[in-house]
């Protein structure tokens, strides 16, 4: 392969990768709207029985306790759990303190200074075993994937 061919290949792969990334985010957002939470398998036609090509997990947005003011939190920890202080709050102590905040707050107890409830982003993940990937690649090679899998970029007619 010549330098020109390699450069062209790299440019094409970059464009396809960017397009696939954008379409992946759109599909994840749509699925997050369609499914509140859960795990589901993806299948493509494969003769008499569908081939399993991946597992999709939807986790909804939720609220977690997190530090929003590091200095205030560090001062609170110095006063209430001084063994947790090194140069800053150890991550293991920070996690255990934050893990206990919900229970403490519900019981009318103390919420550390610098800590507030923040929205933790939900997510959609796709997992594929080697067998699922092989089945997906076989389906792609012989045209069994849905045509809508990769829509044309905006402004380009399919």
Structural commentary:
The chain is α+β, with helices and mostly antiparallel strands and 158 residues long. Among the domains are: 1-34; 62-120, no CATH class. Helix content is 45%, strand content 21%. It has helices at residues 3-34, 70-80, 91-106, 130-141; strands at residues 38-44, 51-59, 62-67, 115-120, 123-127. It has a three-stranded antiparallel β-sheet. A hairpin with a 6-residue loop joins strand 1 and strand 2. The longest helix is centred in the first third of the chain and has 32 residues, at 3-34. The radius of gyration is 24 Å and the shape is elongated. The mean pLDDT is 82.
| Low-pLDDT ranges | none
- Average pLDDT for all residues: 82
Kindly report the spatial arrangement of strands forming the biggest sheet. 1-2-5
Please describe the biggest sheet, giving its number of strands, its sense, and whether it closes into a barrel.
Answer: 3 strands, antiparallel
Distance between the termini: 30 Å
**Share of β-strand residues:** 15-25%
Q: Which of globular, elongated, flat, extended, rod-shaped describes the shape?
A: elongated
Structural class: alpha+beta
H/E topology pattern: HEEEHHEEH
How helical, in percent, are the residues? 40-55%
Rg, Å, rounded? 24 Å
Count of helices?
A: 4
The count of strands amounts to: 5
Which oligomeric form is depicted?
A: single chain
